[in-house]
Amino acid sequence: MKKVRLKDSDELWLAGDLINRGPDSLKVLRKLRQLGEQTRIVLGNHDLHFLAIVFGGHSAGAKDTLGDLLAADDVEELAHWLRGQKLLHSAYGHTMVHAGLPPQWGLKQAQTYAREVEAVIGQSEEEAAAAALSYRDFFASMYGNKPSLWDPALNGMDRLRCIVNYLTRMRLLYPDGSMDFAHKGPLRDLPQGLSPWFASESGQREGQTVLFGHWASLNGDARAPRCVALDTGCVWGRELTAYRLDDGVKLSQPAITG
Known about the structure:
The chain is of the alpha/beta class and 258 residues long. Helices cover 30% and strands 14% of the residues. It is built from eight helices and eleven strands. It has helices spanning 25-35, 45-56, 67-71, 75-82, 107-121, 125-130, 135-141, 156-168, and strands at residues 12-14, 39-41, 88-91, 94-97, 172-173, 179-180, 195-196, 209-212, 227-229, 239-243, 250-254.
């Protein structure tokens, strides 16, 4: 934030995975919550994982770096704030999402499907008490790779899980549009029969520039028009990258180690 000289009048967009795999998850959430309306945040799979621990009864994994956050006095307060964030944000000709936009969805469809999930995970306690599926139910049942293919007829948790997986976990797709969850490597190592979600210039993106993270092994190069990969492997000791909406300039900060 110091390097980009963030001003009070600026908006700070964050493409998800705010926490986990780094040393200061607690400080990150407290700082972003403090910034309030200046931020535009979409949730990533690691953020949802944290919420599934707090609200869904799941346990932290061996590789998680959430200890300080989970032990904090304000952990539930921060978790309630986090579950009020979005899965997709569009403005100024840009659409930000953690993993990407599946080519079988138009932008308006993606926005509608994202709002379906946001309406559940962002419920008030009163709404949750009256709902057939509460946000706690969602986080308890969120994990899973099935269904891996979108069908508008899906309902209940299958529908919500499929939407979430496309928006927060997707990298590669089979020809029918179903998701592969195994490959996380670079484009040069693509398994046969699979292609990245951004492989074809989709007219359904309606001229939007898509900003996404999630796929660290791309190292910031999607090699696709109007698709900006932001994850440059800071988690692996490389760089943290910001993209300036005004002019498309990228700014990078080497990982701080030691």
